[in-house]
Write a structure and sequence with these properties.
The complex is a heterodimer. By secondary structure, chain A is mainly α. Chain A is built from 8 helices and no strands. Chain B has one domain. Chain B: It is found in: Membrane.
């Protein structure tokens, strides 16, 4: 099997597994909705800077919860079984793509609820959506590898947060700046630097993940 | 003796930079005044930290390639020394900021980035402590060390340059190699950097040798 077919069948497997045990997916979706509602109840109305920051904080914790389980709820036996079937590159790529899809769904739902309860101050909607897509991509690339590392180290959820937060901070700073530009409706040429920076970090993270995952996987 | 000359040089340079840094003449600048001397103590800490962290990543890569236990011990000791230098850099920077910017912590991007970089390496140390099995600890530690390194580079060298920062060398401010640093200061600054870098490498080597001895006793 070549890499492409391996990745495709692994993603299909992830989707089928998720669909069969819907509780995990529904749990995360409910988590997002409940968090948005709690924020609404505590803030009532917010100024635009807080609106933006709050959205990304909600997304950050949703992402930690959603992506953390990508390696943790797989038993050792099943991982060994994958090891015999697929190459480590196919496994990490399929996990990243699957987490990206999951994050896209999550962000769509979060953004929808968020806009329903809070007043929407976005100036440049397409650019804001782009920043949300880039955000989903960045969260999934960074947290997939972190989750793989944390799952090898005693499946510790605290460890996931300790390892993940410092790594995600530079990405989050870039995302908040980009989405703030979109909210203020600034000229799009202003945001070029941020988009380049974020995509650059993503490329670096994916490449290091691809290089390092085979060592992590081999046991 | 033939292999240890650089250790004497390190001690000589560090002493020279302390004495020269406090006593030699420096250019008079508004606001900076005598705090300009902090250049001799603050900047070498970061240079030493970067060099030591590079060594740490180098040995982590080497460990993943060869699986030799000593490479992992070297990686962890270089990281330990780097954390110490990073904390010293933060403290000297905060001291300087108090007298020039007026606050210990003024939410400057460079300060924030440096603090987050420290968090990354402290997380690395916590990760290592959380795993008992030696080979597993070495492998996972090496992987996180390599994974975090490019992010730290972005944090320290790319992000602060993209935003407004008061830190010299960022946000359009003059760095230490333009008019700030005249030839009198170079006479102290370069030896100071070289001295602290060599001192850092020396400390890491001693700590590695201690750990190697402990290890050998444990495995007897």
């Amino acid at each position: 099997m070549n890499l492409y077919t391996e990745v495709r069948s692994l993603i299909k497997k992830e989707l089928v597994l998720e669909w069969r045990s819907k509780y995990a997916l529904n749990g995360v979706l409910l988590y997002v909705a409940a968090t948005v509602f709690i924020c609404y109840q505590s803030f009532k109305r917010v100024d635009p800077i807080t609106w933006n920051a709050l959205f990304w904080v909600i997304m950050l914790f949703a992402a930690i919860n959603a992506v953390a389980k990508s390696f943790m709820n797989e038993s050792r036996g099943r991982q060994l079984y994958y090891y015999t079937l697929a190459s480590p590159h196919a496994i990490i790529i399929s996990k990243i793509i699957y987490n990206f899809l999951l994050m896209m769904l999550l962000s769509a739902i979060a953004l929808f609820f968020y806009n329903v309860v809070f007043q929407n101050p976005i100036g440049d909607v397409p650019l804001y959506l782009l920043s949300v897509i880039i955000g989903s991509l960045s969260f999934s690339t960074a947290f997939t590898m972190i989750s793989a590392i944390a799952s090898k180290a005693n499946n510790n959820a605290t460890l996931m947060a300790i390892l993940g937060f410092p790594i995600i901070v530079p990405i989050l700073i870039g995302l908040i700046k980009l989405s703030k530009n979109a909210m203020d409706g600034l000229d799009r040429s202003v945001s070029g630097d941020e988009i380049m920076l974020l995509m650059g970090i993503n490329v670096i993270v994916v490449v290091t993940s691809l290089l390092l995952f085979p060592y992590l996987w081999r046991e | 003796m033939k292999n240890n000359w650089w250790k004497f040089l390190a001690v000589a340079f560090v002493f020279y930079s302390i004495i020269g840094g406090l006593l030699f003449e420096v250019p008079v600048r508004a606001i900076l005044n005598e705090t300009i001397r902090n250049l001799y103590f603050h900047v070498p800490m970061w240079f030493a930290m970067i060099i030591v962290f590079c060594m740490s990543v180098f040995y982590s890569v080497k460990y993943l390639r060869t699986g030799h236990e000593y490479d992992d011990l070297k990686a962890i000791e270089y990281a330990n020394v780097g954390v110490i230098f990073g904390c010293l850099g933060l403290i000297t920077g905060m001291l300087w900021a108090q007298f020039t910017w007026g606050e210990w912590w003024s939410n400057d991007p460079k300060q924030n980035s440096a603090a987050i970089a420290m968090l990354i390496y402290l997380a690395y140390l916590v990760l290592r402590n959380s795993i008992d099995e030696e080979q597993k600890r070495a492998r996972i530690g090496a992987i996180y060390n390599i994974f975090a390194f490019p992010v730290m580079i972005v944090l320290l060298f790319v992000l602060p340059r993209m935003t407004d920062s008061l830190h010299p060398g960022n946000g359009g401010n003059p760095g230490f190699n333009s008019y700030d640093l005249d030839s009198r200061m170079r006479m102290v600054f370069y030896p100071a950097c070289a001295g602290w870098i060599m001192l850092g490498l020396w400390i890491a080597q001693i700590r590695f040798r201690m750990r190697k001895l402990e290890n050998d006793i444990l495995h007897q």
